[in-house]
Each structure stands twice: as C-alpha cells, then as structure tokens.
Amino acid sequence: MKKALILLLFITTTSSFAQKSMVNNDDPTEFMNTITADKLKTKLYIVASDEMEGRETGSKGQKKAGNYLIDQYKKSKISYPKGATSYYQPIPAAFLNAKRNENLPDSENIWAYIEGSEKPDEVLVISAHYDHVGIKNGEIYNGADDDGSGTVAILQIAEAFQKAKKAGHGPKRSILFLHVTGEEHGLHGSRFYSQNPLFPIANTIADINIDMIGRRDVEHANSNNYVYVIGADRLSSDLHNITVAQNDKYTKLDLDFKFNDPKDPNHFYERSDHYNFAKFGIPAVFLFNGVHEDYHGKGDEPEKIEYDALAKRTQLAFVIAWDLVNRPERIVVDKPIK
Ligand SMILES: [Zn+2]
C-alpha cells in the first residue's frame, strides 16, 4: 500500500514536471493563440463606441476610454509602471498647445507594465494612440481602425504576456504598454513621453508602434493577410530580421515594405508615434494597414473592422515583442539616426 502510494506520487511529480518543461520558453505559440478575433472585437466595440464620443484629446469621452483601459489592466492584474504613482502620465495643456497654438485641455498618456525577470532595467515599449478626432458637425467619429485597433491590440498583447508570466514564462526584459494621447494633433503624447521618459532612453531597447491594423487598403483588395512594416531596418538590422523571422515562423502575413522606402511620398515613417522614439535612436517598427475610404471619416466604425486580420497582426506584434524581450542579447543599433 505504502509502496504503491510512493510510486504513484513519483509518477505524478515527474509527469507534471515533464509537462511543464514541454513549454519552451522560446516558443510563444501557446500565448500568441490567446490573442483572438473575438476578444479584440469585444474590446473594440467598447473603445470605439459612441459613448467615448470620438476620444478627442482631453475630452470626457477620451477619459472614459482611458478608464476602460485601466479597468482592463486591473482585471488582468497588470500594474502601472515601477516609478509611477498611477496608470496616468499627465500632460499639461501648455505642452499640447505649444506647437500648433491650439486650445486643448490637459490630457494624459496611460501606461501599464510587466517587469522583466532577468533584465528588468531594459525596457521594450509597445505604443498606440488612444485619442481620435472627436465629434464634428454633430457626428461622432469613432476611430475604430484609427486607432481603436492598436489600442485593443496592446490590451490583448499585455494579457498574453501576463498569462505567460503566470505560467512561469514571464518576459526577461520589462515591457511598457503605452497608450499615448494627442496623436491626431501632432504626435504630442509620444513626444511628451520621449522628452519625459519614465525609463531612461538609453535603456529602452525598442518601440513597437501599432496604428491602424484592422482594415485593408485598395492595394490589397484581394486579401487582408498582409501588413505594412515601416521603420524596422532604419536603426537596427536586428529589428528588421526579427520581424521577418517571427512572421515566417508564426504569423505568415505578407509583409509589405512599400512605405518603408524613405523616398515614399507619404512619409508614414514620420507620421506616427514611433517616430518620437526613433528620433532618440530607439529602434522602432510601425505596423499599419494603409489608408482606406474611412480614414479620418465618420465611417471608421467597428462593424467595418476585419477581425481575423486584426488578430493576426496583433499576434505578429506579440511574437516580435516576445523575441525582443527574451533574446539573450539586446538588439543592436547599427545604423545612424537620420
Ligand atoms: Zn492614427
């Protein structure tokens, strides 16, 4: 009786050990698969609902959207960053209005954080703007793609990393989830962060910026299985190679580098929040679906989002992040700032 019990105990212990070690710390698949179209859809219908009044910078609606983001982080038990006193990085109106002589009220970036287990001082930033253009002529501009899509993508990526952490596979480096404000008025939130960084710029290993990943443009009318990759190779050949390799391995999207051409007249590289990181020498990759008929229009609604594409592109951002925070050596910066 006793012997059998000991044997049984031995079997259970070894088998649970075997099970645990089967999950390779280098393999993000299990956690990547927690990022689903359904979860993103549920969140986006809230972030891009009329209740948020188009999320104009500093407005009541934007603050409501911000509260929703914070509630989600609290639910997932993801705290605000070490060194901060809340989920907010307040930005005074004077800063927001200095450049374009506008009349915006105070606003705030929202941040959350998962600390790295081995190199906590090295930080990856994942950014997306949560402001949009508000209400015009009585119509609410809900900005589901711009940038509700990036906003909910960050929430889902954070949840996936938190699940990995709970399962004993937390990131080795730290991750700052940064929802920036004032993008539509001139990339203000990211500019404020880069000038007032919570973690030293020198310790910031990269920025993954997500701005519009839920729709398709006319160039890809036949398939939504693509994403534009912009900026990855400008400062770091590692960042480019990691983006390509992780996509080949896990998401198999058609990576379109058309807008990465420095001579492209759209200059998207300079037009979203990652640019404020790149300016300081931080390697940045921008994921983007291109523009469409509802860009900055009242038709940018959650009903028009292609949730399968949103999920895949979010998964790509997640697996790039996974590699960046878990690789033994920090990625190199081997090209000059231009
Ligand atoms: Zn945008």
TrEMBL record:
Domain Peptidase M28: 109-317
Top-level division of the source organism's lineage: Bacteria
Extent of the signal sequence: 1-18
Record keywords, A-Z: Signal
Name of the protein described by the UniProt record: Peptidase M28 domain-containing protein
Taxonomic path: Bacteria, Pseudomonadati, Bacteroidota, Flavobacteriia, Flavobacteriales
